Amino acid sequence: MELRNSFNQPNYDPFLLWIIILLSGVGLVMVYSSSIDVAALKQISKYQNYYYLLRHSIYLTISIFCGLIAFLIPINFWQKFASTFFVIGILLLIAVLVPGIGKTVNGSQRWIPIGIMNFQPSELVKLFTIIYAADYVLRKSRQIGTFVKGFLPMSVAIALVGSLLIYQPDFGALVVVISISMGILFLGGISLKIIFGLMLSVPIAMYSLLKIAPYRVDRITTFLSPFEDLYGKGWQLSHSLIAIGRGDFFGVGLGESIQKLQYLPEAHTDFILAILAEELGLFGFTVIIFLYAIMIIRIFGISKISTQLRNNFSALLAQGIGLWFGIQAAINIGVNVGFFPTKGLTLPFVSYGGSALLVTFIASGILMRIDYENKIKAKRN
């Protein structure tokens, strides 16, 4: 495969690649920094302090390899088997609920043990939903503005995925899947009347979810005033805010966090950004947000070029991935600063976690492939 054209310019987006490298590098450093105290308690071997660092390094290596494979796969392959991938995703969500197959952690049955890691199917379902939604919009391009033939079939498919996610439960993944699928439908030309109707139905859906699981009410009331129950349900968010506040402008120094010392639960996963803010301050926090903003802009730039070249599936696919990265990063940042209730969503490329890291790198490989095919087609034209 020719990765450079006749003018010695790469046929992929090096700027986007460098952002991914930077975020992954920051993630590797912060996973080690935020997990060293938790790792020390495992008492596995003399290398116990490096437990999460070594595992994350292995996950990162595997993820990079899978991302390279995804880059080598033509985009029309993903479109051709879009429906098949979506069905596989549903089957995996069903499998994780089967006793003996799925693994329960902290009251949630979201993982399937596969040797060196616990695989989380909901992460793969996010990508498969994007691929399916992009293909669906193109197949239904003449009917996408209608409710019965355009919106309803897709909503039924998403409702099926949503019900399986709720049963796990994985409310964070549910929010992301619904957001990206509705986002692709909107970008694909869904009627504004349908969008308005969906907005009216949101309060009803939220009430139903709260009624099914009353603990979500506690999460909402707690995130609104976490310090009122500092030693109870507000413990996690309170210590996240303490970490961010303690960091001030330039932080207390890399590795010098206090909150990671058994005060802030999930410091190396969902709340890694709070530890980063404590150690690197508002400066480091802002740099991370800036990198995500530039990443999303670049992704939508790739999508725009795809549209101009009439690569419509590639355009929708890139937009979906951009929405996914943007929404998940925004939610994770919002949770860390107390803007959203606590959810089990990692920070893309930064948080510890094998499944999330693996799928985000596969999605990144697809993005690079889209840009590669755009540049090849532009050169031929």
Structural overview:
With 381 residues, the protein is mainly α. It has one domain. The chain has helices at residues 14-40, 51-72, 75-80, 82-95, 121-139, 147-167, 171-187, 192-212, 215-224, 235-247, 272-308, 312-336, 354-380, and strands at residues 103-105, 108-113, 118-119. It has a three-stranded antiparallel β-sheet, with no helix packed on it. Strand 1 and strand 2 (108-113) form a beta hairpin. Helix 1 (14-40) runs antiparallel to helix 11, helix 4 (82-95) packs antiparallel against helix 5 and helix 5 (121-139) packs antiparallel against helix 12. The chain is globular, with a radius of gyration of 21 Å. The mean pLDDT is 87.
Helices, strands, pairings?
Blueprint: H1 14-40, H2 51-72, H3 75-80, H4 82-95, E1 103-105, E2 108-113, E3 118-119, H5 121-139, H6 147-167, H7 171-187, H8 192-212, H9 215-224, H10 235-247, H11 272-308, H12 312-336, H13 354-380
Antiparallel strand pairs: 1-2, 2-3
Helix pairs in contact: 1-2, 1-11, 2-13, 4-5, 5-6, 5-7, 5-12, 5-13, 6-7, 7-12, 10-11, 11-12, 11-13, 12-13
Strand order in the sheet with the most strands: 1-2-3
Number of domains: 1
The termini sit apart by 19 Å
Q: List SSEs in N-to-C order.
A: HHHHEEEHHHHHHHHH
> Structural class of the helix and strand makeup?
mainly alpha
The main β sheet shows up as: 3 strands, antiparallel
Chain-averaged pLDDT: 87
Number of helices: 13
**Rg from C-alpha positions?**
21 Å
